[in-house]
């Protein structure tokens, strides 16, 4: 366990974040002269600028799950899962160029609201239900699981006790302060999280005596493939290069362009330029995780092979064979590699990731529960009633997320478990958003049925693969399964559109691109802040990075 000084640093950090969150949220609401209380609470009065949007997007995405699971993946498979981080930059470009203009122009408060304007009410209802459920499972429960594993090891406190304490504190300032409190605390937490991750990377690098020493160890063990992101067909990881290129866009477009928890930061933008540049700024920040989250795990593997990292406490017996349960590798690195006094900063970074993920998800859940569910049945509800309904929904969601922890803990790898679930949720949503924005003929009826049938297919395939894992379907890698389900949904919606042609309203006829180039007609800011320049620069940087680590 960590020492008393480091524990004190961690506790003071949590108290400071709580105070800042409460102060920011209450100050923002009391200082506002606007009458739309709900907009102030859920969307920060549409006052967010690009730096805060970019940092908040990153903080909502990077949680304790990433710190723990990316280090685990670095230990197990090397740089492979870093592809998830770098491929995200391409989907953030799609968000900035093609989706943001419609979200801002339509003036929606939620993405289900956007689907109603583009398609129909039934599509909105279904997306609201799926989005709330996915936020509970993916953004909260998995974060709590990762955080609980870390806190139990570091503080010797029961996993459920520790996550409940941290989560209750986060829930308090999220429910009281709304999106403004969430975004301000997320911006602070991003800086702390990145600082802690950099410290871990530098310490692991120095302990290994540099990059060349680590490469030498991998060469001796005949595991240089751990340095490659683009794996060949038949790779034992189940993630060859074509699976990443085909499957990730399905997951990424849903996550970055159509998931309320993420996109809500963009919906709170001051204007379209801030809404476009914010995601691009996040795209550049997404370069960092490979170097500061994944590589420490790879260095830990080399240190373990050379005897400089004792993993005895993580060893377990599976099928009569002793293996390393690498879920706790990041925590072990904190305890064995980080000097006393700095460990508190690392724990604060872990808590930052946990708290920012939970706060962002709870805020998006409360927004959807209020606007997409409560207001439907209570259209005359006042802003105060909407806010109250959102707070209640956030509290109930938090309780449900705790109940799911034992089930999710059955996954051997947290990161793979997370993406396995996303791979079966994302395809129909990615499909209806893509066709809705790029194909004017996509009809409301086709979108509605695609969401219903596609989601049912995802659940059935997921259940079948878990109950019968050694069958043909059960052995399909989750990234390829995401692609197959997406192709099914695309063919389904196109066929249904031919059977049920679109009947556009005045509003829906303005919510799709007549041609992709139409999205680039907005001149944007001048100079280096121009969204077109930043998009091209980000693409070039990512292509070079993928080539270097191919």
UniProtKB/TrEMBL annotation:
InterPro entries noted in UniProt: Na/Glc_symporter_sf, Na/solute_symporter
TM segment ranges: 6-26, 47-71, 83-104, 125-151, 157-176, 188-205, 239-258, 279-304, 342-365, 386-409, 421-440, 449-467, 479-500, 531-549
Short name of any one Pfam family annotated for the protein: SSF
Major site of localization recorded for this protein: membrane
Protein's cellular compartments: Membrane
The keyword Repeat belongs to this UniProt entry's keyword annotation: no
Any Gene Ontology CC annotation: plasma membrane
Membrane topology (UniProt): Multi-pass membrane protein
A GO MF term: D-glucose:sodium symporter activity
Keywords, comma-separated and alphabetical: Membrane, Transmembrane, Transmembrane helix
UniProt KW Flavoprotein keyword: no
Cross-referenced Gene3D superfamilies: Sodium/glucose cotransporter (1.20.1730.10)
Record family assignment: Belongs to the sodium:solute symporter (SSF) (TC 2.A.21) family.
Protein's name in the database: Sodium:solute symporter
Source organism: Mucilaginibacter terrigena
């Amino acid at each position: 366990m960590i020492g008393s000084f480091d524990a004190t640093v961690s506790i003071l950090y949590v108290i400071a974040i709580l105070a800042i969150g409460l102060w920011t949220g209450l100050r923002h609401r009391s200082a506002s002269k606007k009458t739309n209380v709900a907009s102030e609470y859920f969307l920060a009065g549409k006052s967010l600028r690009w730096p805060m949007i970019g940092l908040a997007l990153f903080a909502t995405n990077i949680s304790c799950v990433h710190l723990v699971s990316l280090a685990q993946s670095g230990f197990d498979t090397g740089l492979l899962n870093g592809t998830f981080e770098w491929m995200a930059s391409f989907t953030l470009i799609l968000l900035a160029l093609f989706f943001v203009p419609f979200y801002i122009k339509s003036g929606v408060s939620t993405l289900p609201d956007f689907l109603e304007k583009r398609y129909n009410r039934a599509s909105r209802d279904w997306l609201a239900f799926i989005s709330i459920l996915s936020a509970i499972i993916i953004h909260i429960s998995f974060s709590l699981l990762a955080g609980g594993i870390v806190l139990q090891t570091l503080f010797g406190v029961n996993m459920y006790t520790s996550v409940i304490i941290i989560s209750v504190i986060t829930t308090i300032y999220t429910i009281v302060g709304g999106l403004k409190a969430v975004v301000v605390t997320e911006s602070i937490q991003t800086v702390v999280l990145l600082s802690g991750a950099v410290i871990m990377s530098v310490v692991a690098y120095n302990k290994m005596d540099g990059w060349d020493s680590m490469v030498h160890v991998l060469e001796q063990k005949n595991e240089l493939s751990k340095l490659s992101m683009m794996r060949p067909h038949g790779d034992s990881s189940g993630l060859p290069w074509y699976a990443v290129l085909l499957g990730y866009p399905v997951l990424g477009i849903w996550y970055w362009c159509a998931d309320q928890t993420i996109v809500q930061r963009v919906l709170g933008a001051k204007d379209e330029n801030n809404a476009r540049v914010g995601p691009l700024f996040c795209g550049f920040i997404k370069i960092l995780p490979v170097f500061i989250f994944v590589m420490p795990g790879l260095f830990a593997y080399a240190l373990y092979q050379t005897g400089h990292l004792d993993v005895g406490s993580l060893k377990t017996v599976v099928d009569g064979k002793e293996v390393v349960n690498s879920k706790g590798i990041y925590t072990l690195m904190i305890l064995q590699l980080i000097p006393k006094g700095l460990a508190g900063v690392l724990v604060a970074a872990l808590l930052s990731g946990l708290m920012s993920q939970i706060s962002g998800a709870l805020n998006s859940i409360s927004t959807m529960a209020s606007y997409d569910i409560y207001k439907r049945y209570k259209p005359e509800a006042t802003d105060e009633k909407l806010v109250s309904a959102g707070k209640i929904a956030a509290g109930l969601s938090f309780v449900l997320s705790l109940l799911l922890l034992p089930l999710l803990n059955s996954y051997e790898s947290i990161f793979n478990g997370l993406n396995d679930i996303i791979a079966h949720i994302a395809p129909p949503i990615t499909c209806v958003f893509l066709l809705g924005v790029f194909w004017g003929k996509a009809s409301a009826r086709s979108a509605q049925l695609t969401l219903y049938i596609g989601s049912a297919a995802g659940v059935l395939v997921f259940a079948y693969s878990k109950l019968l894992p050694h069958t043909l379907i059960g052995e399909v890698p989750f990234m390829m399964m995401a692609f197959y389900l997406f192709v099914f949904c695309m063919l389904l919606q196109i066929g249904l559109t031919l059977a049920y042609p679109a009947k556009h309203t005045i509003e829906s006829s303005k919510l799709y691109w007549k041609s992709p180039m139409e999205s680039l007609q907005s001149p944007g800011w001048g100079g280096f802040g121009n969204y077109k320049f930043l998009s091209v620069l980000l693409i070039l940087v990512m292509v070079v990075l993928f080539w270097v680590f191919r």
